[in-house]
Amino acid sequence: MTYEYSFGNRIKCTDAEKKHSLKLIKEILDQSKKARSSGFIVLGQNADSISNSFLRDSIKLVGKGYDYSAVDRLLEIKIAVRNADGILLLEMSMIREGVLSILRGDPAGLTEEILFSFLGSSIYESHQKIQSIDHERYVEQLSKAEKKSETSPGSWFLGARDNEISFLLKAFDWESLKVLVANETDGVKYRIYSNLSSEAGKLFRERIQGCTEKEPKVKMKAEARFNSIIEKINSENAVSR
């Protein structure tokens, strides 16, 4: 399925219809988060609760274990035989791209951006503004949390200076970091988010929300990487004294 000039004409619809599609985007993003936390098979088993019939059928294809190219081809055929225009074609195309993004394992932020590409920059910018305000309120709420931690990495965040936290966040990959702090206290999370930009904070928050319990070996590896960076920070602090 190619997105060329004729396709752009076929999906034309009103701004009111596009804004109505925000509900569909939320539903697709919810499926994206469930896929990361529970896996594709469970996702397919729970598909009957999805309100949009085309999204429901598409998620069931994922649950059957079909590979990326097979799902892509099946959805392309399903869209072609409907021979739809306007909002129906727009939403089916969004669903196809969303489901393929889920199969690729894209971050929720990327899936969101792909979906909003169909609605235009003004709607996306308005949505981003609302999301930023919500995230700022969330971080403000975290700032009032009690400053305590249950783990040694968390205790380090509570006692570290801002420049030390910034250094660690740049040196430490987020996939490992989320393993250590996904279940940490709000006080620890505040120290992290307050040293990230609003956009980066939203992305990291999405990763934490999709984080499930990891194998002990994965956590041990993350802790070893964390400790090696802390040792570097401590040695540089000793030299500067």
List the helices and strands and how they pair.
Layout: H1 5-10, H2 15-20, H3 22-38, H4 40-45, H5 53-63, H6 68-82, H7 86-104, H8 108-116, H9 121-143, H10 152-159, H11 162-171, H12 174-181, H13 186-193, H14 198-209, H15 216-240
Kindly describe this structure:
- With 241 residues, this protein is mainly α.
- The chain has two domains: 115 residues, no CATH class; 109 residues, Flagellar motor switch protein FliG, alpha-alpha superhelical domain (Annexin V, domain 1, Orthogonal Bundle), CATH 1.10.220.
- α3 runs parallel beside α7, α3 runs antiparallel to α8 and α6 packs antiparallel against α7.
- The model has no long low-confidence stretch (mean pLDDT 89).
Q: Top keywords for this entry?
A:
241 residues; mainly alpha; Annexin V, domain 1; 2 domains; 15 helices; 76% helix; elongated
Question: What would a concise description of this structure say?
Answer:
Helices cover 76% and strands 0% of the residues.
